[in-house]
Structures are given as structure tokens and as C-alpha cells.
Specification:
Elements (H helix, E strand, L loop, with lengths): L1 H6 L5 E7 L3 H12 L6 E8 L5 H7 L6 E6 L4 H12 L4 E4 L4 E3 L3 H10 L6 E10 L6 E3 L2 E3 L5 E3 L15 E2 L9 E3 H6 L13 E3 L5 E3 L13 H11 L3 E12 L11 H18 L2 H24 L3 H13 L16 H33 L1
Parallel strand pairs: 1-2, 1-4, 2-3, 6-14
Antiparallel strand pairs: 4-11, 5-14, 6-7, 6-11, 8-9, 10-14, 12-13
Helix pairs in contact: 7-8, 8-10, 9-10
Length: 373
């Protein structure tokens, strides 16, 4: 399979699909990619130590497009899987696509067009319009926001796909890595570096004995959750843009790997990673400026998770993040004076996203009240 790929010209786009026990989704995902109007792409599937028969399925899989499969020995998390995929890709753009998706025919074409029209190469990522697979009149994600409470959120989730504000291309804080496209060269400019002392620990091994870099793109310390916002935060600090493109549409099951919107593992990990996210990307003056808002956000979230039965997990994750901050020190982006205006721009985006979140929350609550009536 890999030999067949290497004989072909390098594609413009590599679609990287991380898979962990997602066999039940693969046929749907593959069939949708086979129907793309854009054809200058290859698919690279990275299996994350699945035990549901995925490896056997993938080893036999054939498709109407160039296909490569990497089967890692163990579950390295979302970050580990996509890092292996990005390291193997040689294309100009990479698309990270969850296996529980059904990409519409123009999905890749619309993503590629945004990059092709960006002559100055200032766009790092493009986030598509993600629609709920089982409720195709409702949005799942219109790009990701980040607000003054330290909350990452899906713009437009639960709202009508026809909502005017989500039918226009716009800059967003972050792209959802469940279906986003990235400019490959920027990853090399924002890469992490653990240092030569730990070089031996920076690789994952696959079932064929090959080694794939665990670094440097998405932070492996996150394992899963908020790693996409972290990488976009890093890119924004360096002046790159992230864009939401509504012409690119993909249907999404949601929580296809974790199995539910909230569970103990997800709540603990997200709470820990939120601490990492702010520590790594906000310089001291920015942390102090936003501290009260972030602490208020922690208390509100704690109350919410106590209410639904995950209070202990949230507290455990939050304090795990504080106790293990030293692990992130080498990953921290330190303040550079020439980027002051960029940080001011990021702070203004946090303000904007706070109002956007409140607006979205109000719309969702009004819809719930309407249903009860």
C-alpha cells in the first residue's frame, strides 16, 4: 500500500484520520471521501492501538484514492496519532478528519480554495461548517471560540444551519481538529521542542517496527481535548489567522471515540488541559489581566459538573494541571515585545468571544424553553 502511494506525485492535500476502535464508522467516512469533487488528495489513516478489528480492516482496505495506513502499537491519544500523520505527510495542506464524519462532496474543495486565495500565506487553519449527522438542520460547530472565562466553545452548536451569522466566512479563535485543514509549513514554525535530553522518548512505534515522531506539532501532554485550541493559540501569537469557511460542510456524529458528551475521563482531562493551555500561551501580564475571569469560569464549571455528577473528576483534573505545570515549561510560549500588538488583538478576540458565547447560550436556552412549552 505504501509503495503504491510513493509512486504517485505528492498530493496537494493529505487527509489524516486518527482511529481508535472506530471500525463502525470507517465505511461511511471512506465512502464520503470517495465522493469529493476535489481529487488532488491522499488519505493517511493512523490507528491508535485499536482492539475492535480496525487493524485487520485497515490492512485490507482499498480505495479510489491514494491511501496509507500507520498502525501504532498503543493508544497515543489524538495528539500522538495526528503528530505521526503530519510527520508522514508531504503535502502542502493537511486535513485532520474524525472517523465519525461524513464529508459532503465540496468539503475539501472549499477548504483548499481558502488557502489558495491566501497569497500572503497568513492563514494557518480553516474550520468547516460541522453539522449534526442525526439532526442535519442543526449546527455542531462553526469554528471554535475562547472567552474571558477560560472556556473553549463550539460556535453555533445546536442552532439552525441557516443562521445568517454562521453562513459567512469569518476569522475565529480556533479550528476544530475534528475536520479542519492546516497549512503544513506553519506547523514547522510553531513546533514544540522537548530538547535533546529526552530525544529517546519522542517517538511512537508502529506494528511494523517503524518509529514516528511524538513531537512537535500538537502537544502530546494534552493527549486529547483542547490540543486543537492550543495549537491555534500558538499560531495566533505568531500572527497567523484561523478562518471559518461555511461552504465546506461535514456531518459529524460527535464523541464517536469517547462515547458520550461527558464522562469521567473526558471531564478530568479537559480540566487539566485547560490549565496547561492558559499557562503555556498567556504571558504573565495576560494571565493577571484574565485571572478573575478564569477563576470565575472554574467555579461556574465546577458547579455545573457537581450538578451532573462529575464534580470530583473536574476538581481532580484542575489540581492535576496545577501540580504538573512543570511538565509544560519547555512548551511555554514566552512573551516577545514585538508581539505586543498581537497579544492585544488576541485579548480583543477573547472579549468578542465572550459576547458571542453569551449570545449563543441565550439562543440555546430560549430554544429549550420553547420546546417545553
Amino acid at each position: 500500500m505504501e509503495e503504491r502511494c510513493s509512486e504517485l506525485k505528492t498530493p496537494k492535500v493529505t487527509v489524516i484520520i486518527p482511529n481508535y476502535n472506530g471500525l463502525k464508522f470507517m465505511d461511511q467516512c471512506m465512502n464520503a471521501l470517495a465522493g469529493q469533487t476535489y481529487t488532488d488528495f491522499a488519505v493517511l489513516i493512523v490507528d491508535n492501538g485499536s482492539t475492535d478489528g480496525s487493524v485487520e480492516y485497515l490492512r485490507k482496505l482499498s480505495a479510489g484514492f491514494p491511501l496509507q495506513v500507520i498502525c501504532l502499537k498503543e493508544n497515543t491519544g489524538f495528539s500522538g496519532a495526528v503528530n505521526a500523520g503530519i510527520s508522514a505527510a508531504e503535502s502542502e495542506y493537511v486535513v485532520l478528519l474524525n472517523n465519525d464524519t461524513e464529508a459532503q462532496p465540496g468539503y475539501l474543495a472549499a477548504l483548499a480554495e481558502v488557502f489558495e486565495k491566501d497569497r500572503r500565506h497568513r492563514i494557518f487553519a480553516v474550520s468547516p461548517k460541522m453539522v449534526q449527522l442525526y439532526h442535519k438542520d442543526l449546527l455542531d460547530d462553526a469554528g471554535d471560540g475562547y472567552n474571558l472565562f477560560g472556556w473553549a466553545f463550539q460556535r453555533g452548536v445546536g442552532q439552525s444551519v441557516k443562521t445568517p451569522k454562521f453562513s459567512r466566512r469569518t476569522d475565529v479563535f480556533s479550528a476544530c481538529a475534528g475536520a479542519a485543514a492546516y497549512r503544513r509549513e506553519v506547523f514547522e514554525k510553531i513546533r514544540l521542542d522537548r530538547g535533546k535530553a529526552e530525544e529517546a522518548d519522542c517517538f511512537y512505534e508502529d506494528l511494523d517496527g517503524r518509529k514516528w515522531p511524538a513531537y512537535p506539532y500538537f502537544d502530546p501532554l494534552h493527549f486529547a481535548y483542547l490540543e486543537d485550541l492550543d495549537v491555534c493559540f500558538r499560531a495566533r501569537i505568531r500572527g497567523y489567522r484561523v478562518v471559518y469557511e461555511p461552504a465546506s460542510v461535514v456531518y459529524h456524529v460527535g464523541s464517536g471515540t469517547s462515547g458520550s458528551k461527558y464522562n469521567a475521563f473526558k471531564v478530568r482531562l479537559a480540566a487539566r488541559n485547560n490549565v496547561y493551555l492558559n499557562y503555556k500561551n498567556m504571558p504573565l501580564f495576560m494571565l493577571l489581566l484574565n485571572l478573575l475571569g478564569i477563576l470565575a469560569g472554574v467555579l461556574v464549571k465546577l458547579g455545573f459538573f457537581v450538578k451532573i455528577g462529575f464534580g470530583r473528576e473536574y476538581i481532580a483534573g484542575f489540581f492535576e494541571g496545577l501540580k504538573t505545570l512543570d511538565r509544560c515549561r519547555e512548551h511555554k510560549t514566552y512573551f516577545v515585545s514585538r508581539r505586543l500588538l498581537t497579544y492585544i488583538g488576541i485579548e480583543l478576540m477573547l472579549v468578542r468571544d465572550t459576547f458571542s458565547y453569551i449570545q449563543d447560550f441565550t439562543v440555546r436556552q430560549a430554544a429549550k424553553i420553547g420546546k417545553k412549552r
